[in-house]
Amino acid sequence: MSNQSDLLLDVSILYRSTQKYYDRMLQKLHMTYAQLPILIMIYEQEGITMQQIANQGVYDKGTISKNVKNLQTMGFIRTQESKKDKRNKELYTTDQAKQIMFHVYGIRRDWWHHLTKDIQTDELDHFISLYQTMAENARRYANTETHPIHFYQWQKVSLDAYPDQVATVLSTGGCNFRCPACVKSDLVFLQESTQEILMDDVIDYLNKRRGIIQAVSIEGGEPLMQDGIAYFLRQIKTMGYKVKISTNGSFPDRLKELVNEQLVDYVSMRIKNGPRHYGKAIGMDTHDVSDIQESAEFLIHGSVDYEFWWQPIKEFHNEKEIQEIAQWLQGAKRLVVAPLPAGARMIQPDLHGLPAEQIKQAIEILRGTIQDVQMGD
Ligand code: SF4
């Protein structure tokens, strides 16, 4: 296991161990772990409504209703119509619950003592304060309706990221593929501690660089996985920037939406292999290429400017695969063939770029069906 922080796994271990402990200890009270925080909230805030519990605990309504109903059936709580708003029900603990709360708090305290054994008081205070801040951030974010876009790398000025334009280059994190030859493992295996670049800082930068920077190039990971991409692009388009998106082509609907809304001026679609063995080149056993095909056809027959981009890898691309790619992209306007850079750090480090002589032969094959095949950097 990596020695990098893996908060999600740690939280999951903590959660499951806590659940096991509570379920065992609560057995004699005929309660479950899921009911406990809800009962404590009602006991400490008599008259609280289901909506308030949902907001405070970031629960969905179904979970609350189910647990409230069970607690009611067990005789631990009762409901009462709210005097302020008749549509709401207020929740109160019964005398039966009040009798057991001492035991409930005792179970909770014992577990806490067990978890915090050998931790100094000042360390614990600091941890609790940080933990509460994280929970508050999580609660706030979970209730946010808008979807931000997450950037993790930023090359502020580039002369070759966008054809004939001075561009700024932003990289989003996360990808639905795990290509063995991927050189962006830090964006694919995104660590929790990776510093995010705030969208507002990018907007601010672009606002001040109008006339100096002309284009924004958005790369991945896979940028079309980002729910907030349209929102972000609308903002930068109103500033007059040209936009290039690099994509693996697996989100044709979103690609079409962005292009049809005129939010994208140039698409670079990354082709990984011929259709038969596509899965092999993206780190999967098999892969249905229909989405990728849909994106490719949209570009070939559509009006937005584009290129296909392909990195030849010795272990994946023999002549047969290259002929398949040529067949697949028949009629395409442009293909950039990008040799693997020397010293590239790939997810699977023992792969090799195709030798120069074979790349030349590949280009000859590809030129049979594609109008413009260029050697990339
Ligand atoms: S699609 Fe691109 S970013 Fe995603 S794993 Fe493959 S090479 Fe890496």
TrEMBL record:
It holds the Pfam family Radical_SAM. One of its GO terms (molecular function) is catalytic activity. Keywords: DNA-binding, Iron, Iron-sulfur, Metal-binding, S-adenosyl-L-methionine, Transcription, Transcription regulation. Coiled coil: none annotated. The keyword S-adenosyl-L-methionine applies. Residues 4-136 form the HTH marR-type domain. Residues 161-377 form the Radical SAM core domain. InterPro entries: Aldolase_TIM (IPR013785), HTH_MarR-typ (IPR000835), NrdG2 (IPR012840), rSAM (IPR007197), rSAM_sf (IPR058240), WH-like_DNA-bd_sf (IPR036388), WH_DNA-bd_sf (IPR036390). PANTHER family: TRANSCRIPTIONAL REGULATOR, MARR, TRANSCRIPTIONAL REPRESSOR OF EMRAB OPERON. This is Anaerobic ribonucleoside-triphosphate reductase activating protein. It comes from Catenisphaera adipataccumulans.
